[in-house]
Amino acid sequence: MVRAQRGDRQAFGELVTRYMQRAYYAALGLVGSHDDAVDMSQEAFARAYRSHESIDPDGPFYGWIYQILRRLCFNFLRDRKSRRRRLEQRANWLTEEASARAASSDPARRAELTELRERLEIAIAALPDKEREALVLKDFEGLRYREIADLLGIPMGTVMSRLYAARRSLVSLLEDRL
Q1: Are 134 and 148 in contact (CB under 8 A)?
Q2: I need a labelling partner for 66 at 20 to 30 A (CA). Which of 52, 87, 138, 141 fits?
Q3: Which of 49, 83, 117 is the last residue of a domain?
Q4: Co-location of 77 and 1 in the same domain
C-alpha cells in the first residue's frame, strides 16, 4: 500500500489484481449489468490510481476503493433515464449462479427454477438502491454487519434496518408474483 501510495505502478497493479474481482461483483450487485459492472469497476481503479497519493496505507484498501466504486455506481444509476431501462439492461448474474447450482435433469424442475430466478432478479432490481446495496454486501459478498457499516460509513443499526427492509420487500415482491 505504501508503494502504491507513492505511485509505484507495479504495487498498484498488485492491488488491482487482488481486488478487481471483488469490486466487479460489488458493482454487478449494484448496477445489475455485466458490462456496466466491468465499466464501473475499471473506472473505480482508474480514478483510484489517479488519486493514489490519498491511499491510507494503514487503512483497508478495499474500503477505500469501495467508496469510489459505490459513488460511481450510484451516480450511474441516478443518471439512467428510467427504472424500466435498468431492468432491461440487467445481466444474467443470478440466472448463471442458480443454473450452475441447479443442474437438474428434471425439465419441470428446471423450468420452475428458471422462473424463480427471473422473479428474483426482477425483485432485487426493484429494491431501492441503498437496500439493494446492503443486501448485496451481506448476502452476496458475505460481509458482516460491522464490515458493511464501516464500508458505507453508517451505523450498524442502519445496516440491519436496510437489510430487514430489503428482505421484507423481496418477500412481498415475490409473493405478489405467485
Answers
A1: yes
A2: 87
A3: 83
A4: yes
pTM of the entire predicted model:
0.56
Amino acid letter for position 174: L
Same domain assignment for residues 113 and 171: yes
- Residue-wise pLDDT for 122-176, tens only, equals 888 888 989 988 988 888 888 888 889 988 889 988 999 999 999 898 888 887 7
Number of domains in the chain: 2
**Distances in whole angstroms, Cα of residue 30 to Cα of each of 53, 73, 103, 143:** 27, 7, 27, 15
Q: Output the CA angle 43-122-137, nearest 5 degrees.
A: 50
Domain that holds residue 156: 106-178
Residue 28 CB: number of other CB atoms within 10 A?
A: 22
Q: Where are the alpha helices (DSSP H) in 32-60?
A: 34-50
Residue 37 and residue 23: Cα distance in Å, rounded?
9
